[in-house]
Design brief:
Structural class: alpha/beta
Shape: globular
Strand content: 25-35%
Order of helices and strands: EEEHEHEHEEEHEHEHHH
Distance between the termini: 52 Å
Number of strands: 10
Length: 258
């Protein structure tokens, strides 16, 4: 199927697993995924360069850039967005931000179109980031779209039990996408029959899904519209809650930069 934005480069760095994908129409040309040892910035540009060169393309051949906006790793999200904004600015091509939880849920929704998927990412502090999604049919021929049925949130995983049960049916448990259950293995929630856990190896936010969701969003919002510098600058990560890192209240250098 021909797309409005044929070539998309997508970056997903909400977790320790960095995912980069290059798509042309519905074809995945390159998909590189690795668990970073130190930080995303140490390998992100190197990986993007390798992916583009492997297809004998220039970064200027990209029609749309996509980036996961989180929630997730504060450092990973900042690095990914900074790189994506720089590439979009340098090439004068549009950039679309996508929920990393939605990207995590999307492949499972495609495989189980009648299900509700709860995407969970470990948020530390005994909490998870969670979002609930379904596929919603559309009246035209564009196909079903992803729909958030609950606001994304940070919460203790056990406190989500009633909400998960609310969206389950006798024949269709809620599918839990993500690896949060590995971070909190001892809680009772994971043993309930109103949810289904999936193998950990399949459960990371994926840049391919980020690209597909970004294309649909761009087709709806950027059709016959050129993204301005001001609009680009307004794309920010969705942290949901404040960072664990806090500035000291009486740091001697703080007043100097305020």
């Amino acid at each position: 199927m021909k797309a409005n934005f044929p070539r998309i480069l997508a970056i997903e760095a909400a977790t320790r697993t960095q995912s980069i994908a290059l798509l042309h129409d519905d074809n995945v040309l390159e998909h590189r995924q690795q668990r970073v040892r130190f930080d995303h910035g140490s390998v992100l540009l190197q990986n993007i360069d390798a992916i583009v060169k492997a297809q004998r393309l220039s970064i200027h051949d990209i029609d749309l850039f996509a980036v996961g906006l989180g929630p997730g790793s504060f450092t990973g999200l900042r690095v990914a967005l900074a790189v994506a904004k720089s590439l979009a600015t340098a090439t004068q091509k549009p950039l679309v931000g996508v929920s990393s939880l939605a990207s995590l849920a999307y492949p499972q929704l495609v495989a189980h179109p009648g299900a509700t998927v709860c995407a969970m990412i470990d948020a530390r502090r005994n909490e998870v980031y969670a979002g609930f999604y379904r596929l919603q049919s559309t009246p035209d021929a564009t196909g079903p779209i992803l729909h958030a049925v609950e606001p994304e949130r940070a919460a203790e995983p056990q406190s989500l039990a009633k909400l998960i049960e609310k969206h389950a049916t006798p024949s269709q448990p809620v599918i839990i996408a993500g690896t949060a259950h590995l971070a909190y293995p001892d809680i009772d929630l994971w043993n309930q029959d109103f949810l289904t856990l999936l193998p950990a190896w399949s459960q990371q936010p994926d840049a391919v899904a980020t690209a597909i969701l970004a294309r649909a969003q761009a087709a709806a919002t950027l059709h016959n519209h050129t993204q301005t510098v001001a609009e680009l600058s307004q794309i920010e990560p969705n942290y949901i809650r404040p960072s664990d890192a806090k500035l000291p209240a009486h740091a001697p250098w703080l007043k100097a930069i305020q």
